[in-house]
């Protein structure tokens, strides 16, 4: 789903005013940690403080909201950039600059529980998925049948 610049400004203002923003998940790129419709809470953050494995919300240049896992800092054309990748995506996203960053994931409201990114199992999953990139292919194979569930 694409959003206008005005909508992006509303998101930035909301997170600045309230300290966090809750948004429903859309898509399967962060399966199995985040599933369609689960409510994700993001707090404002400084991109230079992101650590490998953190999940952050940013907007792409075409106005799409994306919540993916942070992998590394890069410098491109003398500008600091952030590189993200969805857990079920094979390759990384286009590099992101600080101005595109909206917030860092702090919790997920699942059907019957709230999962914090500081929980042991979430931290373990983060370490596993960033350490073994081939798991993305296996996850993709798990997601494809779920999309066509009748």
Layout: helices, strands, pairs:
Elements: H1 5-18, E1 20-24, E2 39-43, E3 55-59, E4 65-76, E5 79-85, E6 101-109, E7 114-116, H2 120-131, H3 135-147
Antiparallel strand pairs: 1-2, 2-6, 3-4, 3-6, 4-5, 6-7
Number of domains: 1
Q: Can you count the beta strands?
A: 7
Poorly predicted runs: none
CATH architecture grouping? Ribbon
Query: Which percent bin holds the helix content?
Result: 25-40%
Per CATH, what is the topology? Umud Fragment, subunit A
Largest sheet: 7 strands, antiparallel
Please tell me the overall pLDDT. 91
Superfamily at the CATH H level?
Umud Fragment, subunit A
Find the structural class using helix and strand composition: alpha+beta
The first-level CATH class is given as Mainly Beta
Radius of gyration: 15 Å
The end-to-end distance, rounded to whole angstroms, is 24 Å
What shape does the CA trace take? globular
Strand portion, in percent? Answer: 25-35%
Can you describe what's shown?
- The chain contains 3 helices and 7 strands; from the N terminus they run H-E-E-E-E-E-E-E-H-H.
- It has 150 residues and is of the alpha+beta class.
- It has one domain: Ribbon (Umud Fragment, subunit A).
- Strands 1, 2, 3, 4, 5, 6 and 7 form a 7-stranded antiparallel beta sheet that branches.
- Strand 4 and strand 5 form a beta hairpin.
- The longest helix has 14 residues, at 5-18.
- The chain is globular.
- The mean pLDDT is 91.
């Amino acid at each position: 789903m694409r959003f206008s610049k005005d909508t992006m400004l509303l998101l930035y203002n909301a997170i600045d005013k309230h300290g966090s923003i809750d948004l429903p998940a859309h898509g399967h790129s962060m399966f199995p940690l985040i599933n369609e419709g689960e409510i994700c809470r993001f707090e404002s953050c400084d991109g230079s403080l992101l650590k490998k494995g953190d999940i952050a919300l940013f907007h792409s240049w075409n106005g799409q909201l994306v919540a993916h896992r942070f992998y590394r800092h890069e410098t491109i054309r003398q500008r600091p950039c952030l590189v993200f990748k969805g857990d079920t995506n094979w390759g990384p996203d286009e590099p992101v600059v600080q101005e595109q960053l909206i917030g860092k994931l702090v919790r997920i409201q699942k059907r019957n529980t709230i999962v914090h990114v500081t929980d042991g199992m979430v931290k373990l999953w983060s370490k596993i998925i960033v350490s073994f990139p081939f798991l993305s292919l296996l996850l993709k194979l798990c997601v494809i049948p779920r999309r066509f569930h009748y």
